[in-house]
């Protein structure tokens, strides 16, 4: 027969705690919403920057033998947030936590997941750092490229925000049946098509001047010199490649007299969205909505949105953007804490995650 103290130790060992790895109040709001839904208290810890800008983390309670979930939302100071996450994960690892699961709704550096000229795939570097710090599992949402999951050496649950955004369209956009889903570029067509099929709406695709950060001109294909020295063996003479020339922006699909809903995963620099909205207005769309999972909204994004033809920008609370909302009333927020809380509960209890992906298309 086991003594009561042994049973108590085993109960503690099988428990879980939820911590926030962020030092700013704006970034702890999502963590508070998640813990409220779970019916648990936020773990006691102190995260702060010393006078020399070093990050320090003090965990104020025992975590031995427990599943620990670290919620880290990414503010504008991305690098500080990454260091806070790494230091907290390492502190929990050295405190003998059983499993350390990072809840990172917006995964930083996800746009740097392809080789550009003589650069590096920074996203791969970050995944290696997280594993070294002690993380054993990641919960994230709408990775910029789904192939990023292959960079990790531990399990990744890539949740989707599309059910919440689709629900917003159905409940908050009057006469949404007269809408058309728009892909801002051909690369976004699959995601937009998934939304269009579930909403039973038409699809339009914009083609033309693309985002320069995604341009093939930056991937190193033009890095060899066009003229080589004739000294010694010249090797094979490769044919010169013709430079790509983008046509002016065109819209494939009829948007006249319709509500245009542009679908994307990240909205950061908004110049492309503003230009797309102007083209759609010229083509006869009478309302323009932007729907995206992660609203980074950097630099002058709020001002540009407010002055543009865009009627509303709808993003989730994976990234704190309260300041931007004060600057631009057109920005609306959809809460996704429910699915994050349910993912935490299911992972701790060893339940299947399939329920969270029901009716979710691969292309979302």
Account of the 3D structure:
The chain has helices at residues 4-13, 25-38, 78-94, 122-133, 162-172, 189-199, 271-282, 301-306, 322-327, 337-349; strands spanning 16-20, 45-49, 55-59, 67-71, 99-104, 137-141, 156-159, 179-183, 202-207, 250-252, 259-267, 287-295, 312-316, 331-334. The protein is globular and about 60 Å long. The protein is 31% helix and 21% strand. It is an alpha/beta fold and 364 residues long. Helix 2 crosses helix 10 and helix 3 runs parallel beside helix 4 (122-133). Helix 6 (189-199) links the parallel strand 8 and strand 9. The strands form 3 sheets. The protein has a 7-stranded mixed sheet with strand order 10-9-8-11-12-13-14. Strands 1-4-5-6-7 form a 5-stranded parallel sheet, sandwiched between helices. A two-stranded antiparallel sheet has the order 2-3. It folds into 2 domains: 16-159, Rossmann fold, CATH 3.40.50; 162-209 and 248-334, Rossmann fold.
Tell me briefly what this model is.
With 364 residues, the chain is α/β, with parallel strands linked by helices.
Distance between the termini: 53 Å
- CATH class of the largest domain, please? Alpha Beta
**Which architecture of the largest domain per CATH?**
3-Layer(aba) Sandwich
Give the overall shape.
globular
Mean pLDDT: 87
Write the CATH fold name of the largest domain: Rossmann fold
* Oligomer state of the chains in this structure: single chain
Written as H for each helix and E for each strand, in order along the chain, the element string is: HEHEEEHEHEEHEHEEEHEHEHEH
Widest sheet: strand order? Answer: 10-9-8-11-12-13-14
| Rg measurement, Å | 23 Å
């Amino acid at each position: 027969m086991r003594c009561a103290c042994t049973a108590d130790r085993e109960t503690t060992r099988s428990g879980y705690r939820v911590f926030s790895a962020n030092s700013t109040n704006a970034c702890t709001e999502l963590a508070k919403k998640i813990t409220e839904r779970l019916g648990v208290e936020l773990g006691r810890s102190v995260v702060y920057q010393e006078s020399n800008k070093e990050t320090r983390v003090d965990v104020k309670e025992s975590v031995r033998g427990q599943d620990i979930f670290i919620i880290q939302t990414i503010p504008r100071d991305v690098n500080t947030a990454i260091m806070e996450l790494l230091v907290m994960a390492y502190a929990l690892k050295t405190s003998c936590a059983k499993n350390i699961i990072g809840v990172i709704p917006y995964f930083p550096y996800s746009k740097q997941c392809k080789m550009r000229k003589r650069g590096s795939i920074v996203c791969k570097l970050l995944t290696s750092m997280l594993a070294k710090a002690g993380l054993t599992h990641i919960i994230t949402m709408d990775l910029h490229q789904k192939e990023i999951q292959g960079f990790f050496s531990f399990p990744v649950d890539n949740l989707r925000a599309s059910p919440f955004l689709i629900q917003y369209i159905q409940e908050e956009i009057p006469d949404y049946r007269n809408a058309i889903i728009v892909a801002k570029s051909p690369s976004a067509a699959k995601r937009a098509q998934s939304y269009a099929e579930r909403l039973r709406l038409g699809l339009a695709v914009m083609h033309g001047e693309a985002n320069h950060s995604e341009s093939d001109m930056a991937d190193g294909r033009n890095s060899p010199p066009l003229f080589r020295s004739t000294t010694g063996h010249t090797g094979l003479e490769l044919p010169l490649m013709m430079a790509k020339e983008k046509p002016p922006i065109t819209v494939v699909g009829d948007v006249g007299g319709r509500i245009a809903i542009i679908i994307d995963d990240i909205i950061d620099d908004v110049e492309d969205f503003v230009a797309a909205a102007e083209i759609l207005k010229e083509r006869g769309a009478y309302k323009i909505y932007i729907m995206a999972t992660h609203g980074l909204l950097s630099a002058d994004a709020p001002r540009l949105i407010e002055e543009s033809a865009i009627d509303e920008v709808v993003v989730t609370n994976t990234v704190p953007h309260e300041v931007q909302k004060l600057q631009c009333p057109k920005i609306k927020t959809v809460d996704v804490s429910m699915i994050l809380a349910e993912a935490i509960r299911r992972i701790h209890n060893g339940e299947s995650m399939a329920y969270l992906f029901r009716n979710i298309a691969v292309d979302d």
